[in-house]
Amino acid sequence: MRSLRDRWRRDRVLLLLALPGVTALLLFHYLPLGGHIIAFQDFQPFLGVWHSPYVGFDNFEPVFTGDPVFLNALVNTVIITLIQVIFVFPLPICLALILNATISERLKRLAQSILYMPHFLSWVIVVALFQQMFGNGGMLNAWLRSADLATFQIIGVPELFKLMITSQVIWKDTGWSTIIFLAALSRVDPAQMEAAVVDGASAARRLWHVTLPAIRPVIVLLLILRLGDSLSVGFEQIILQQAQVGAGAGEVLDTYVYNHGIVGGDWGTAAAVGLIKGIVGVALVLGANRLAHALGEQGVYAK
Amino acid sequence: MAPTFSRRHVLALGAAAGLAPLLGACGDGGPSAPNGSSGPVKPPTYKPVTVAEPDLAAKPAGVSPGYFTYPSGAGAAAQPVQGAPVTALTYTYDPIAPALDANPYWQNLNRQIGTELKITYVASADYKSKVATTIAGGDLPDIVAIQGVFQQMPAMLKATFTDLTEYLSGDAVLAYPNLAALPTDAWRATIYDQRIWGVPVPRARIGTVLYTRADLLAKAGLSLQPESWDEFKEMARALTDERAGRWAFGQIPFTTILEMNGITGNWPGGAGVWQAEGGVFTHSGTTPQFMQALADTVELVKSGVIHPDHAGVPNTKRNAWMLAGTTAFTIGGYAGWGKFYGQAKDVPGFRLTGMLSPTRDGKGQRVRTPGPTLSSFTAIAKTGDADRIKQILKVLDWLCSPFGSSEYLALRYGVEGETFTRDGSDPVLTEAGRSQVFLPVRYIAEASPVIYEPGNRQAVKDQHDHQVAGVPLAVADPTLGLYSETAASKAASEQQELDAVLLEIQLGNKPVSAWQPAIKKFMDRVGNKIKAEYEEQAGD
Amino acid sequence: MTSRPAAAAAPVARRAARTRPRSGRGERPVWMGEPSKLGVGARGLVLGLGCLAVLVPFWAVLVTSIASPEEVNKAGGFVLWSNEPTLDAYRAVLSGGIVTRALLVSAGITVVGTALSLVATIALAYALSRPGSLLHKPVLLMTLFTLLFNPGIIPMYLTVKQLGLLDSYWALILPVLVNAFNVIVMRAFFQEIPRELRESAHIDGAGELRILLRIVLPLSKAVVSVIGLFYAVAYWNAFFSAMLYLQSPEKWPLQLVLRTYVVNNTPIGADQLSSSLENLPPQISVQMAILVISVLPILLIYPFIQKHFAKGLMVGAVKG
Predict the structure, then answer these.
(1) Angle B122-B125-B127 from CA coordinates, rounded to 5°
(2) Nearest residue of C to residue B322 by CA position?
(3) Maximum C-alpha span of chain B
């Protein structure tokens, strides 16, 4: 082990490079993070952090006592996260592979430019479009009705709610999420590819043995980061559509915080749930990272 | 006990004054505050200002005056208010206005008032966050619009804003004639801990309207005012033709069904749901009439007269359905009446009326849920400088100049020839003027509303008719002027849960019987405490 | 004084770029192999359907923004075809000059913010791409944890206020200067660059800064452009911070200005008493016009960024 002095001399440029970013993070993330103290307060803006009374763990009450309304929100959140990790996460990878395999550069760019557009629509618009197209009184059903065909019902069916919002997420963000994988795919080594072709490897084998290993670190990294966000699922999207099915099927953790904290000006509760989400996120990321190491992956950071 | 409103005080016009004040009587200067809420503090004395005689009178009390044309020969301008610029924080329901240097309307306003207005404003949807951070930051502008009720409201006001009681209570307000013309019930909502904390931005008392496409009903040969529940249901069925993509309603007319059962209140949100009799407060959700209303709702929803996508669409969409004739009704705030005409230019024969709630058996007394008395009130940041306070109040007084005055023209239309032109006596904004008048001075202070739809006599008459018929039916909200800390803090979260159960029942996901445990939980956790807090204050 | 590997890498990179098919004529690189008919068909079907699923709604957005009030009223919502297109909705939004001004503000914030963010992110990501360096792990974990804890809006406001940034455009840039997600992704890409390249440069006496600028960055155009796009879109779309930190509406960026047309859910001028005399464009047309105005700049810029996505192929060439 070198002495600290040597390491300082060796790495000082690196530290200097890190300085602007680290300063920004310290100032604008860690400094205000002290504000999480209000999770233990009956916080009132006019009293401020210094004068609001402390209430211990009162704001965590629904979490600790297992309030059924809270539990329902938690369960819905976890189910939606699972559905989305399984069905939504792999799609951009597949799409990136398809685009990457498209030979015509012009066609590829065109498809890409079209597919990423929905990302820029706000959820309000996406939901409105969806209702107009697939609603019970929407365009498709109106047409079916006028043609004397059986109509279908997606909106307002509690059992279909999670699938409905998942398909909306797929439509909106698959194209956009593709670009990071396309960047990763650009690193696939053409020489290795050529070698594989020369060796007579089939397209499937080339995909499995050359392409996927090349982008695997990025996939694992993004998956771990996604897991850290497990307890947040599309707040805006869901709050817009919650009233179609009611809270039983439509309440998630973020809407719970909104309905029980923000709406009533209850800053303490919102901070308390934020704190819990953060702690769970840290645990999940560290756990997933450890798992990645066990499987021989780099993960977010090395061992 | 009859299932209707025997427990309520329905104070029709001319009925003997009971325990609750007649909501519509906000401005008649009669015996005030019988519910004792305002106790020691005297609300500002009411003294109306009329510049021009209305075409349709402001009677019975609480009804807005109606004007077919803009009164010509407006009064002379008041004295400008000299003094240092006034900074303000408020909200808006409009897009933003051009900056001062590109806004002749604003420049003219500053010139005429004699005091420069510097206004910071955000969309109303973001306003709560803006106010909370501004208060937490501790650097308030001179005046702040307070919208809604905050936690620990009395303490917050005391710590942050100026007590205006000595300037406005009783006859003191007469120093500001336009403020004295604001209705007493609006002032009542600015009083906390027996002190007056701001100047209200008043609203018409008629409240939420069941907007009715009168032309569609007429075409179907239906009465514009069903008298009983049966007739109401029949009407709804007659307006529904699923194959043609037509339904009667764009949302569940829950308030109508409640009123038909003799109770008032706004759901979801639970505003104005407390009833009082002899000092005893009752939450209307605990009454058998409420259970009946739930059963009626389920019946109506099952009969298929409501648009199948009614749940979870924004109100703009429901309004669009009504404009398109997809539905015959929409429910909305009274302030929207004029805008429907603006949007329905191309709908042939379009006519809008308001429908009152029938009674269950077609007999007896109807009731109506009144709207909030104010949109917000404007408070002055804490200062001990009496001259400054008086200057600011004079500015607010100027902003409350009445319909027909030249100040009103400057406030709503700006500069003749530049931001507006005339069509007869009616002012018409120019295209440039239209965006300049978005400056939200009207959400800082404004006079009591009037009915004025230039060039559309029918619309003025229909609105006035609806107010004349509806306002006297309004049942007083006994909590007006009372403050419950539990209601302002803990109740919000419980109310959300209650609303969630209500929605599941309305959608048919849960049986009507799910209401009993939900309302019991609400009462146990917060309701009984709120009841006690209200009863204690009302007993003072 | 040019170091050897850096000098070597550049021409290779240029050569690699040259050999890539640039046009749509579809020269197939050798490594792609012979495509199967089934594969091509399936791919075409997926892409075709995907594009259709995007284009139809966008078409509806566009047509609704130019449809006449009568057509909108008849449809009760989105319109798929307009016989009498009108630009009234655009006129309504653009009148008064506020939107044009806000566009410039947004463009300025986006350009300056993205540039600063990229510099800070690249620097931090590079520093973090060297395991074993001084303070490496604490700084990495510190960066990572900012992703998981969200400071509340009131503490953020107080911080911005304390730093004297209220009512300044810096308040829209500095708090979001560095996004941990972007740092970590960029770091992962930097780490993929073969260690030998860096080490030989180091032996030749190149300093860290030189290695970053001459070797790492030229090999990372793809990820830099992707992260740059992420930042640009975030700056472009941000409105909440502007709402909290900017006092005067005339300083507002585009998205916040446009938000007042959308969230308030009232047609323009609904509250103005004279409204019934005037022909107002329908609310939904205005919303769609706003959408088109706010998305168009990004759609126009995208192709210029897109062409960088596929860069970085030289890595293999050097290694091979």
Answers:
(1) 50
(2) C76
(3) 69
Residue C268 to residue B93, Cβ atoms within 8 A: no
Where on the phi/psi map is residue B98: left (φ > 0), alpha (ψ -120 to 50), or beta? beta
Supply the DSSP symbol for B196: E
Helix (H/G/I), strand (E/B), else coil: C184: helix
Closest residue of chain C to A37, computed from CA coordinates: C155
CA atoms within a 13 Å half-sphere pointing along the CA-CB vector of A37: 14
Min distance C298 CA to chain A CA atoms (Å): 9
Residues 414-473 of B with CB under 8 A from A: none
C-alpha B486 chain-centroid distance: 23
H/E element, C114: helix C98-128
**Residue of chain A minimizing CA distance to C78:** A132
d(C-alpha A243, C-alpha B313), whole Å: 8
Q: Which single residue is written with the structure tokens 């039916």? A: B473
Q: Confidence band (pLDDT; 50, 70, 90) for C265?
A: low
In one-letter notation, the amino acid at residue C280 is: L
More confident residue, B146 or C278: B146
Contact A244 B311 (CB under 8 A): yes
Whether the CB-CB separation of B205 and B62 falls below 8 Å is answered with yes
* Helix, strand and coil in chain C, % to nearest 5: 70, 0, 30
% pLDDT > 70, chain A: 99
CB-based contact C151 A36, cutoff 8 Å: yes
Taking the C-alpha atoms of residue C154 and residue C148, their distance in angstroms, rounded to an integer, is 18
Within a 13 Å sphere around the CA of C179, how many CA atoms are in the beta-carbon half?
21
Residues of chain B positioned with their CB less than 8 A from the CB of A155 = 309, 312
Q: Which of C264, C271, C288 should one mutate to test binding to chain B, selecting the residue with the greatest count of B CBs within 10 A?
A: C271
Determine whether the interchain pair C147/A20 forms a contact, defined as Cβ–Cβ distance below 8 Å: no
CA distance B442 to chain A (A): 25
pTM, full prediction = 0.87
Residues A191-228: pLDDT tens digits?
Answer: 887 888 888 888 888 888 888 888 898 999 999 999 98
Cα B502–A256–C181 angle (5° rounding)? 150
Q: Kindly state the helix (H) or strand (E) to which residue A80 belongs, with its residue range.
A: helix A68-83
> How far B347 CA sits from the closest chain C CA (Å)?
7
Residue C170 to residue C167: CA distance in whole angstroms = 9
At A268, is the pLDDT very low, low, confident or very high (cuts 50, 70, 90)? confident
Q: Residue B267: its chain A contacts at CB < 8 A?
A: none
Inter-residue contact C9 to C216 (CB < 8 Å)? no
Nearest by CB: B314 against C153, C157, C265 = C265
Write the CA distances from B332 to A196, B280, B339, C184, C299, integer angstroms: 68, 31, 11, 49, 38
Picking from A175, A184, A278, the nearest residue to C149 by CB comes out as A278
Query: How many percent of chain C have pLDDT more than 70?
Result: 80
Q: Which tens digits make up the pLDDT trace of C215-236?
A: 899 889 889 999 999 999 999 9
pLDDT score for B526? 95
Closest chain A residue to the Cα of C302, Cα to Cα:
A113
Q: How high is the pLDDT of residue C33?
A: 53
Distant-in-sequence, close-in-space partners of C190: CB < 8 Å, separation ≥ 6: C125, C126, C129, C216, C220
Residue B271 gets the label, from left (phi > 0), alpha (psi -120 to 50) or beta, of beta
Identify which has the larger pLDDT, B235 or B8.
B235
Task: Write down which chains contact chain B via at least 3 CB pairs under 8 A.
Answer: A, C
Each residue of B319-362: pLDDT tens digit? 889 999 999 999 998 888 888 887 887 788 999 999 999 999 99
- Distance CA(B129)–CA(A45), nearest Å, equals 10
